[in-house]
Here is the input.
Amino acid sequence: MAGLEFKDIRKSYGNVEVIKGVDLSIEHGEFVVFVGPSGCGKSTLLRMIAGLEDITDGDLFIGDKRVNTVQPRDRGVAMVFQSYALYPHMTVYDNVGFGLRLNKTPKDERDAKIREAARILQMENLLDRRPAQLSGGQRQRVAIGRAIVRNPDVFLFDEPLSNLDAALRGSMRMEISKLHQQLDATMIYVTHDQVEAMTLADKIVVLNAGVVQQIGSPLELYNYPANLFVAGFIGSPQMNLLPVTVEAVDERTVTVASSDVPSTRIPVASARGIRGGDSITLGLRPHLLAHSEVGGITGKVLLVEHLGNETIANFALNSGEQLVAALPGSAELSNGVTLSLGFDVADARLFGTDGTAIPVADRPFR
Amino acid sequence: MSSPGPQKSLQRHPLAGWLMIAPAVVLIATFLVAPFVLAFGYSFTNQRLISPNPTEFVGMRNFEQLLGIGVLTLSPEVDEAGSPVRDDDGALQYPRVRDYTRNNPDYPHLEGMREWFGWNWGNDRVLVLARDLVFMKALTNTLIFVAVVAPVQSALALLLALMINQKLRGINVFRTIYFMPVVVSIVVVSLLWRFIYDGRNGLLNNLLEFLSFGLFQPIDWLGNPDTALWAIIAMSIWQAVGFHMVIWLSGLQTIPVSLYEAAEIEGANAWQKFRFVTWPGLRNTAVLILVVITMQAFALFAQVDVMTDGGPVDSTQVLVFQAVQRGYEQQNIAGGSAISVILFLIVLAISITQRYLTRERT
Ligand SMILES: Nc1ncnc2c1ncn2[C@@H]1O[C@H](COP(=O)(O)OP(=O)(O)O)[C@@H](O)[C@H]1O
Ligand SMILES: [Mg+2]
Here is the structure.
């Protein structure tokens, strides 16, 4: 039983600060995903939880205990590495049981736990093999098995699926998800893949350059990105981000326009800090654009991708900006055709001059 | 596919491949294969360095000469009454060995042998005799040298490698220092160590005197038959330990850091990390190092040549030194060749055994 509490956690290598003050609380049993581009500090943050990196500044609590100076083995965590980190000279059985052997668990208890883990992960037939005789997916299973047998409070995963091919990644993702439900343990999972984040997480932490950009449920992040970074990072295809100018502002609406976008009144919760003439950004999800006869944004079709259930179309706008729309079904579109796209103003997102989101008007209570 | 051109036709020419390996083949043949075959051949002849007489084939005689040993059991001298004769100190009297090994028709197989070592068996004295005492000393000294240097040097090198593999500021300085003796010519190193081991004003004696507040009596390390071989052993270990440290180090660096991290999270202490991660990861390196050190140790020559010339009283004779001395100083090329062949067979046998003992078990 353990949640985690991060209080202004910082990490520097020499003079370079790579984690710049992270505050976060994780409930017991939550599945939390750290997501962000490569090099943003996800692994560093995870390794600080494991105790593999010193915490330069701030306090980290696992359960009620401040663990900044606690040895990795005493933190009640188990970690699954991207490279699997299996001991090459040991059989699967010994790999899985290694931690139990180190802490002198009696032989029969150890055996029972190893076999139980093997059963959960459906790898009973692999126990006598060595890591070199296993496929990537099987190795990852063994690595997870090694974490399970120790019955940790917190599971840590560092990009566990990124060495696997796409199909296997999909099925392992589901298994990890299933495992989380079975084990009732806290899981912290690092990935640069927003799809993994969206599908696995109870709570996503978006990181960029060592700074937390937003914390929230997958849908919260998708629907209400806190800033331009999150807006661009979460969702596929990416959200369209068009530069627009503020034409008029009142308490509850902002009217924006540009050479591409006709004058549009967008409801907001508060327009504080926005002034007429400001250059701000209009965010439109490709899936929320629809073909419209009148008004809307006009563009010339550049490229069409037919996916069967939907059609992804790239448009060139007058200003030279590009726009992506995901249209339902197999829309009849050919290159060079000019088309008009409309959207519901309630779906439009605005980002102020500093890149942070302007609060959305009728956001449902979360 | 084919694009004919000058380049292509040259590559296609049947002789092109042979031409390309020719330099290597010539060099290997001249400096490795030919000497090897020659030594092998000479060892069955009576070839001398310079001799007016034609070379003759002598079969195994050189080897019999080198390896001939015999056992002689001597009973104490007895008086008429049949009780053992004792001298003034009460020690038993034995017949002279020489009476058995010189022109004694009852003991033809001991002809020309000399006493090597012996022990008491009840009242009897058992003696092991050798036809070529110097060779036997060289053989045993070489085996002692190998038996001490191989384990001690590899263990020491591993210890240094483990210490140097840490991420500490300025660790490269230590790497350089430990590796330095390897770069310096062994002849130069040997000369320097002669000063260190010097009997009167040597560095080692001075140091020991200083550390023991003058109680230590200076030893002529290289001039004393009891210490000379050990002095050479110590110096040889020191000289090449850096080389093997670097090989260990390269082995250590092939072990992924994540294995240590996983072990750390699972609760392994420093010893357990070594035992379960480092050591298994170093298997292949260990085999390599053991084989290389053994070979190098058998090839011991320069240190002896520079520091002791095989002395005092043959206490630092070793096989390669003997082979050279025999071949060139005594002009007995056949004898020297025979020693080389024996050395070759020993090294071959040992490396095959090592390979077998350290084989990959599946
Ligand atoms: N041992 C180290 N020394 C110096 N810089 C490091 C070290 N480890 C990581 N970094 C830097 O810290 C940043 C975050 O790294 P990391 O946490 O591995 O990123 P990722 O989000 O891809 O997992 C990167 O810019 C990286 O270059
Ligand atoms: Mg990473």
